[in-house]
């Protein structure tokens, strides 16, 4: 999220008019958790797909 500058609370506050810093921090933390879960799922999915493709073509 830092790579894409998505964790800048001042910018989030300006763009979405959220004045409560606690809510911003909470939502950033939840967003990071979802990104990590999705990344883990994608790695597992593509690993399984690769193994299946290797078995089919051998």
Could you characterize what this model shows?
- The chain has 2 helices and no strands.
- Helix content is 78%, strand content 0%.
- The longest helix is centred in the C-terminal third of the chain and has 37 residues, at 21-57.
- The radius of gyration is 18 Å and the shape is rod-shaped.
- With 58 residues, the chain is mostly helical.
N/C terminus separation = 40 Å
Radius of gyration: 18 Å
Secondary-structure element pattern, one letter each: HH
Whole-number mean pLDDT: 79
Which spans have pLDDT < 50 for at least 5 consecutive residues?
none
Morphology? rod-shaped
Strand content: under 5%
Task: Give the secondary structure arrangement, pairings included.
Layout: H1 9-16, H2 21-57
Descriptive labels:
58 residues; mainly alpha; 2 helices
Summarize the entry for a quick read.
The chain has 2 helices and no strands. It is an all-alpha fold and 58 residues long. The protein is rod-shaped and about 55 Å long.
